[in-house]
Design goal:
9 strands, 35% helix, Ribosomal Protein L9, domain 2, 147 residues, four-stranded mixed β-sheet, single chain, 2 domains, Ribosomal Protein L9, domain 1, alpha+beta
């Protein structure tokens, strides 16, 4: 018997997957508990539509990430901060400050958790930051810290 899982079942698979199970297991366990639905023509059509929709959404997210990479890659972002006489900053420049500067200067909204710094930014100077926009898509941004 072919069933489409509506919930994760430990011994079979994840929700939304099509699986072949024995007739007794399907009729006596999975179907009465609402863990699966029988794979008839309507359910198969809904499954194909759902998979196509998910594939479209993933492709759109990847296309948006590639466009953001093209917009951000190699950009120079200027951040002004206060420092002491030796050029050492009061505190440090955080990824949240870098994200807000990127949004203000380029118009591209970036989550602060996606910015990877090589170390703390505690002095004036030029630093590089990597922005992991999407799995497998990253952009390099130059951060210039000055007065």
């Amino acid at each position: 018997m072919k069933v489409i899982l509506t919930q994760d079942v430990k011994s079979i698979g994840k929700a939304g997957e099509l699986h072949e199970v024995s007739d007794g297991y399907g009729r006596n366990f999975l179907l009465p508990r609402g863990l699966a639905t029988e794979a008839n023509a309507q359910a198969m059509n809904e499954l194909k539509n759902r998979e196509a929709s998910n594939a479209f959404k993933k492709q759109k997210a990847l296309d948006d990430a590639l466009a953001a990479k093209e917009k951000l890659n190699g950009k120079k972002v200027h951040i002004s901060a206060k420092a002491g006489s030796a050029g050492r900053l009061f505190g440090s420049v955080t990824s949240a400050e870098i994200a807000s500067a990127i949004e203000a200067q380029t118009g591209c909204v970036i989550d602060k958790r996606k910015i990877v710094l090589n170390g703390d930014i505690k002095n004036y100077g030029v630093y590089t930051a990597e922005i992991k926009i999407h799995p497998g898509v990253a952009a390099q941004v130059t951060v210039e810290v000055g007065e």
